[in-house]
Model the fold of this input.
Amino acid sequence: GGPSSTVTTQSWQAGPRSMQLSQSIPVVMSVTVSPATDSPARTSAAPGKTRLANFYRLKREGDAPFYLVDLPGYGYARGGDKAAAEFDALVGAYFHREGRDGFSPVRGAFLLVDSRHPGLDSDRRAWEWLEGQDAEHGVLATKIDKLTRAERQRHLREIEAHHQGPVLPVSAVSGEGLDELWKLIDRLANK
Done:
């Protein structure tokens, strides 16, 4: 089912040295680049200062549990090269962990981009990085409800051109795209 089915959650934050995930539970990642993009995460008040991953252990009725790991601010880390390198190490650590079967538990990743700002260099860099990872990945265009019909069509075409594929438009306010997102998450988590 969609978001109306019962979901139980646990959430916590962790840095690269304190990842404590069960190696047998699949992981779906959410990578947020722009500080203006919606993220489920608790973040720092200063954009680019977040250095923690946000973990959500989800279990829906009738399904096995999975982790949703939100990485807010990828590509936007303030603090110079040292901060960017630390954040790259944090993100890379999740993708390159091995589960009990010798494979990464990461089943997929979503890049969240603000639909109001297509073609940002930081979004492109994050997409290029995701393209190099061994996990299924896609793009979510957030805040789609903030665009006029004409802007929506133009911006979605631009985002699809930049990321060379389909984009799922979503809105936390109107609920648009959330059923499709849940179906995608279910498919990734249970593959």
In short: The first helix runs from residue 80 to 95. Residues 35-48 have pLDDT under 50 and may be disordered. The beta strands are 7-14, 27-32, 53-60, 66-71, 106-114, 136-142, 167-169. Helices lie at 80-95, 121-131, 149-163, 178-189.
